[in-house]
Design goal:
about 210 residues; mainly alpha; 2 domains; two-stranded antiparallel ribbon; 7 helices; about 5% strand
């Protein structure tokens, strides 16, 4: 904020511009918040250098609260980089970028893979299409991910969870299989295992959008 302050102070002094009292108070508040943020940036690494690791994280958390105020005051992301729904579709956007433009498209809902249709969660989306909307979508998705994890932990059934191909090693009791050189052998498919000869495209909803293989 100090660079901004001197940038406007110069023309104001040259033009003999009278700054409203309210604006002067707001500037002083923002400047002192900026001073605190700067000192916190010094204090965090200093505490870490002398062996106090935990305060480092708390200090940066408090610093982020100050920067949240700056972003709200300057509207740094609101109305910036707007991408409409039609543009998002034409450009092939997916994931949070697409959902922030008003398109409620999430492969976890569309393709219903794994157990996503057995837990309660909502597709997070915004209609504004700006940088703020993309931020809000990602923040909301983290909350939804926590909801999904909590429900999955509560409802996870019993039963096998390993691939059955590992059983082919049960016949071999040689301890040599535990050596480092053989660590990845169990990842190889069974010699008798065959896939049908056809083409297939598989996709999932990755954090940044659709991820697929052909």
């Amino acid at each position: 904020m100090f660079t901004e302050a001197i940038t406007v102070n110069g023309p104001e002094q040259l033009g003999n511009i009278q700054v409203p009292k309210r604006a002067s108070y707001i500037r002083a508040i923002m400047l002192e918040l900026s001073r605190i943020a700067s000192h916190l940036l010094w204090l965090g690494p200093f505490m870490a250098d002398i062996g106090a690791q935990t305060p480092f994280f708390y200090i940066f958390r408090e610093r982020e609260l100050i920067y949240d105020l700056f972003e709200a005051a300057t509207e740094r992301v609101e109305g910036v980089g707007i991408i409409g729904a039609e543009e998002a579709l034409n450009w092939g956007l997916s994931g949070p970028m697409l959902r922030a433009s008003g398109i409620q498209w999430d492969l976890r809902k569309v393709d219903r893979y794994e157990c996503y249709d057995e837990v309660d969660w909502e597709v997070q989306w915004q209609k504004e299409g700006d940088s703020l909307a993309r931020y809000l979508v990602r923040i909301s998705e983290m909350t939804e991910s926590i909801k999904i994890i909590q429900q999955a932990l509560e409802g996870i059934p019993g039963g096998p969870y390993e691939n059955l191909e590992i059983r082919r090693f049960d016949r071999i009791k040689d301890p040599e299989w535990n050596d480092f050189e053989y660590r990845f052998i169990s990842k190889k498919p069974s010699p008798t295992f065959e896939l049908s000869k056809q083409e297939l495209y598989v996709r999932v909803e990755a954090p940044k959008g659709e991820l697929g293989i052909f």
